[in-house]
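Figure 2 data, in text form.
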Amino acid sequence: MQAARLTGWKGQRVVIEAARLLNAGGELGNCVIVMAGDAQGRDGYRAELESLIRAGGLEDRVRLVGHVGDMPAAFALAHIAVVASTEPEAFGRTATEAQVMACPVIATDLGAPPETVLWDPRSPDGTTGWLVPPGDAKALAGALAEGLTLPPAHRAAMGQRARTHVLASFSLDAMRLATLAVYDSLLGTDLAVRFSGS
């Protein structure tokens, strides 16, 4: 699942090329790539994506589904979420929203995702997803192949780590306390302690 408005810097072209590479190598299995998001008037871009899907023979493998009203349910049903942005995102909620629904994430290694997606190939038991270079369809295809072939129990464990990580680090309460801690360091106060309930 890629949840992003249809615009070039969100990386839909890269996702389609990754799907084409996987399909050509027989590695896509019975998976379908769902691209959720509106064109918001960029009908020419949507038409370009549809053309790339047809040219890659991916009509049954990549679906542009438009707006999805219940993203928590969509992420809960997805095996993997993809954040393929080719330009840095200030925060980009998609990576955290997917993880809080216990969905592992493949994201590009720029902007905020390296802070929200835990990835260390030397220690896979601590990961919540994968980071790939932006615009690199081959690397994205490799991460997708790895994620889609994980045994269900391993993918579920990664999803649970993702959920735990996001709830501990990026909940509204966690962000409030982190902000108060910055004030405390500047002002010599103990606001974070007083408002943490400790």
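Caption note: The chain is about 50% helix and 10% strand.
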